[in-house]
Design a protein that fits this description.
- The protein is mainly alpha-helical.
- The protein contains 29 helices and no strands.
- Among the domains are: 99 residues, Alpha Horseshoe (Serine Threonine Protein Phosphatase 5, Tetratricopeptide repeat); 61 residues, Arc Repressor Mutant, subunit A (Orthogonal Bundle).
- The longest helix is centred in the C-terminal third of the chain and has 18 residues.
- The relative contact order is 0.05.
Length: 544
């Protein structure tokens, strides 16, 4: 007759089966019944972190460090200290993290030869250099960590070192080399060779690099992989919010804005449950949808929440300034962001810099930004890069007085954006094509382009963009007398704070029809947003 499984056996088994809550319950019970060896205390720390119990995780990792010291295992104690450095700094406890870093270094003083713990200590140091804007120095530390991980056959350390090397390469502007390294490390992750916490860190960091490198194909592939990975661990909190924020960004690109807003808000919920790294992405993506749909005050609040993380919400906040007619502020924001950006982030911001410099009337600065954006491109560049450069080129050429060349560039850009299934950007290409046709005197073609763009913007709910096109098309703002009876009904409901979906239910209309009415209202009243339309309506006695 076999002995029944102990709480420790059950906890270890639950961990291997990814049942984190069961694992935590059993391991805590085993700890209460007779204590745990340090390796299992480390296991409890990992499970607690995965469940979003950050303070408890730090407490258990501290205990594991102390137990290893008692046993004379300084290398394992230093490894625990290295993870404490990473966790604490990620939680904003920088001084405490630095204290643990100093302690770990002291533990390894006098060691003969390298140890795996030494490699783990290089990871937070390399991350610090990346955040400080020195990816070249960070690359050297990550390379050394990879060497040490390979020497000791430590899969987690190898993967983290290679992740850092790839991320550094992308930040330095060597996107192809960096992405190749990141693809390789993802092979280890998807094969299950890496522990859960390093694996989650790698998933999220790789997606960040895909965003910097403007590689939509990889972003789709690895976002889907992250969703599957999170789905196989349903009670996991850590990384789950970041997964949702990444998904929201892709949904915005593809025009599924209502779903993107829901997903970004779900990511916000995961922040409160213990995934603080989702904070910036959740709030920034909410800000993007709210800005694009004309909820400008709400967008400003969302960007402000994103900014509380210490990262500036660009280019979204600069575009918001434009819609709010704060052109000088938009320009200053973008120029400051560009000045402090590493090569990869700078390239990400250049398309917005073109738009904002043109809005400010500085065509020469827009041309300089375009030339920098276009210089490294060729026919085999990533489609998103080509699409952004072609759209920016069309805008600059038009401002420079070359409508024929602008039309050609806008047509090229439209084809790429259409192939990427990015309706908002494709509609922007139609607007530029219409403006180019109008500049050449082809009013019929211009009207056709403007009509197509307006319809697409209205379908998306992009009311500020639709209102701008209606004005370009010659439907000048006329005030109260031009609003139809139906538009007046819609305006009253907008003033009541109802979204398009609720207005559609109230008036028995489709959401697309409501979106068109809202766009027409904004254009006719010469206002940029729903909030501004509400203010106008009260100020001019349209509603009471």
């Amino acid at each position: 007759m076999t002995a029944p499984d102990t709480a420790l056996d059950l906890g270890r088994s639950a961990y291997s089966e990814r049942r984190w809550r069961d694992a935590l319950e059993c391991l805590v019970r085993a700890d209460a019944e007779g204590g745990l060896p340090p390796q299992d205390i480390e296991l409890v720390a990992s499970v607690a972190m995965l469940l979003g119990l950050n303070a408890e995780s730090v407490e258990y990792l501290n205990r594991a460090h102390d137990e290893y010291l008692t046993l004379g295992d300084t290398n394992s104690a230093a490894r625990c200290a290295a993870w404490l450095v990473m966790f604490l700094m990620d939680m904003g406890e920088y001084s405490l993290g630095q204290g643990w870093l100093a302690r770990a270094k002291h533990l390894l003083e006098g060691s003969v030869g390298p140890s795996a713990a030494e490699g783990y200590l290089l990871i937070p140091a390399g991350l610090g250099l990346l955040r400080a804007g020195d990816p070249q120095a960070g690359h050297g530390l990550f390379s050394r960590a990879l060497e040490i991980g390979s020497l000791f056959h430590d899969r987690d350390l190898q993967a983290m070192g290679q992740l850092g090397m790839g991320t550094s390469q992308v930040s330095l502007g060597h996107a192809d080399d960096g992405l190749e390294l990141l693809d390789e490390v993802m092979v280890s992750v998807t094969a299950g060779e890496v522990s859960p916490i390093p694996a989650g860190i790698i998933y999220c960091a790789v997606l960040g690099s895909c965003r910097l490198a403007q590689d939509v194909r990889r972003a789709h592939e690895w976002t889907a992989a992250l969703e599957r990975w999170c789905g196989d661990r349903p009670d996991m909190v850590m990384f789950s919010g970041q997964c949702q924020a990444n998904r929201a960004e892709l949904l915005i690109l593809h025009g599924a804005w209502n779903e993107a807003l829901s997903v970004a808000r779900a990511a916000e919920g995961r922040i409160r449950k213990g995934d603080p790294d989702a904070t910036f992405g959740s709030w920034y993506q909410q800000g993007e949808v709210l800005r694009l749909t004309g909820w400008l005050d709400d967008a400003e609040r969302a960007y402000a929440k994103a900014a509380e993380t210490g990262f500036e919400p660009v280019p979204g906040i600069a575009y918001l300034h434009l819609v709010q007619h704060k052109v000088a502020q938009a320009k200053n924001t973008m120029r400051r962001a560009l000045a402090g950006a590493d090569p990869a982030n700078r390239r990400r911001l250049l398309p917005a810099a073109v738009d904002i410099e043109l809005a400010a009337g500085d065509v020469a600065a827009a041309r300089a930004a375009l030339d920098e954006l276009s210089a490294p491109l060729h026919s085999t560049s990533r489609p998103l890069e080509l699409a952004l450069a072609s759209l920016a080129s069309a805008a600059v050429l038009l401002a420079e007085g070359h409508p024929v060349a602008s039309l050609q560039a806008s047509r090229k850009a439209w084809r790429i954006w259409y192939s990427l299934e990015a309706p908002y950007q494709a509609a922007r290409c139609r607007v530029l094509a219409g403006r180019a046709c109008a500049a050449m005197g082809d009013t019929d073609s211009a009207a056709m382009e403007f009509e197509a763009a307006t319809a697409e913007f209205a379908d998306l709910g992009a009311t500020p963009a639709a209102a701008e096109v209606l004005e370009l098309a010659g439907e000048k703002p006329k005030g109260q007398s031009s609003l139809s009876a139906r538009e007046m009904e819609v305006l009253r409901l907008v003033a009541d704070g109802l979204a398009n979906k609720a207005i559609a239910r109230e008036l028995y209309l489709s959401e697309k029809t409501v979106a068109r009415h809202v766009s027409n209202i904004l254009s006719k009243l010469a206002v940029p947003s729903r909030a501004a339309a509400t203010s106008y309506a009260f100020e001019h006695g349209l509603i009471h």
